Amino acid sequence: LSTANKFEYKLIFNEESDDLENLEFFLKNIFGYDKFNNGQISIIQNILENNTTIGLLPTGGGKSLTYQLACLLQPCISFVVCPIKSLMYDQIKDLDLAYIQNIDSINSDTIGAERTEILDNYSNGKYFFVFISPERFQTKDFRERLVAINSQLNFSYAVIDEVHCLSEWGHDFRTSYLNLSNTIKKYCPSINFLGLTATASVNVLKDIQLEFNTDQKNVKTLTDYTRPELEFIVINDNGNKYQEILSILENHNQEDNIFDLDSDNPRCGLIFTPFVNGANGCFDLSNRLTNNFNIPVRFYSGSKPSNYQEDLDFEKYKVKVQEEYKQNKFTLLTATKAFGMGINKKNISFTVHYGMPASMESLYQEAGRAGRDKSDAKCYVLLTEENPETDVQTIFNPESTYEEIQSLTEKVKWDGQDVFRQIFLYQNGLDSISKELELVTQLHNTYSEPGASKVVYATNLASNKAKVEKAIYRLSNLGVISDWTVDDFFSGVFTVTYNTFTEESIKTTLLKFIKKYVDDFEFDNNSERIKYTNILRDTELSKFERLVKILLQWSYDKFGTNRRESLKNVYENCLKYDDTLEGKESFKKSLEAYFKFTEATYILQHIAENNNKDIAKWFEVFYDENNNFINKDSLFDLKGNLQRFLESFQTNTGLNLINGLTNLLLEEIFNEIEEKRFSKSFDTISNYEESKFDYVIDQILEISKRINQKGKILLLKFLYKYSKTEEEKLRFAKELGDTETILIHYNNRLKSINKNIEYGFRKIG
Fold it and tell me: Between 20 and 30 A from 171 (CA), which of 295, 577, 696, 732?
């Protein structure tokens, strides 16, 4: 088959145009749907107009259909990068049901002659698109195939499904996505990207935009992620998770007969757990539930459980479980987060998080597997609250070091509950800064040569494939390495291409890299960044080691703190849950507000990217377009948005001030960390020049008129601390109604007057 140049559609959606009707014709006749879901059309329109596009839709929102229709409407070939094989197989089966069969997949299961045949067919234009694992782009032979295909045929779209995996900030970051976008741009220069995900934090989204070289106008999403069919229920299980899940399953069996495998309309459940092994792992849990209810309960995990002893190859087992679950051959599945990323199963009527997830994003995305048929569904979280003696605030404190957290987790051990279990999983995947510094330095000293190409062996570095590839990535952050391919995925053999570099170029590249996320970052000596200045002056390290250590320290500070802030948000929201109608609605609103895109979202983005530069913007979020103060619902949405931004920008003065004022307006209790953030914002503001300081204070005082008296007392604590004169302190007391301070002030003045009068009489006498 032959291809033509991409067609650039000019779609118009109004009463005079029939473009929407034409698209709905294809929707109905190809996929069987009458109408598009909310948010789908804006993604389809943007990519058909050949704009690189980032599409954000909630789980079950129909992301896959957007790329499938767009690819079919172009006279070119495309490819879809999928992070997991199960997702490829699931989408191929669904497309087959729609009679779309000119597609195939290339992953680690397709080997030898089969892979060659698929690539030959793709090269000859026999497929609309193929599903490709990201690892293929790391191999020389596949890159050579792309060059050959590009010389004969036209590419339309590079679809990156679950695009959040591309960013190191993401909770599902994968090393196989490293350099993916650069590789695609290099070997398919005319292609347009379409990145799709159900979730993306602020920094993940920024990373994707940088990788795709696109701006905010090409990010297409819903303004509201509300899923009315979902009901969220948080159960404080007091450490008795298994008893709670037995109760949940028995109740659902009474309501929906979930244990009946012969039902014409079966209702299914999905149980998420963070672990593969152990008593709380999906493998053991599936066996216990099977024995308890005498029904088949299967498990699904990315890695093979240590006690897995079935004859069936584990990869084949996973495919079998996925297919049988979709076919309703069993109704209950226990799984890690490896299952369900994009899997289309419509009759899941409830999900259970057997332990708190790692973030608000994970909770909403995984819980969103339920209710895809728009039927009412329940989403449970089984939470074990931390013992106050375990000092969980150290985990949440953004200033805690890796070593402090490591020491705390070793001290707490088995006394830790859901928060500590998540921290264990995170820390388990990390090396200490000193160990990673040692490996990066060893890699550099052993192989680095400006302008050269070298074959790197993980075994020569006494390490494994994953760690060495991460070290290669670190050197690429520093501009030492320009590209690499993987020659052996098992033992870790890489062909690495080096840039022409010097110590000065490494320092310049490092600064440029960090400034992508913190635009005012410098190596200067200041209170916020003294640790980096100290590293730069550490004479026990070589100049190269100092720069690597700054990169590693900054990465840990930012990425590690980001993960812990995410954990803090979901934990504190779960703790605030109460089992009343109002409590349930409040919890769900908190979840949805986290994802909501409002006018305030764009203002917060501006504040995040322009710290201390545009202080007037700080206060715009409290007023609507008519300059009226926003209502409580809008404040609630603002709080949800702030949580999302503060995961990525913990030290931003404006965001921390807005967060503190929002807490006061919503009458929420300050915890130790919230209070410290609010205080830090005042620390910075107090050093502003007088006119700037006065402006901020005037705005705060205006907002304080809407704060209750208890909140005003707390606000005064900060205002008094930074008062520069007694007159200023008196002004604050009058504005916020602190009668006691006013009386003390005037009493002291009277005492002073009396003393002066007495002194005058003595002189006369």
Answer: 577
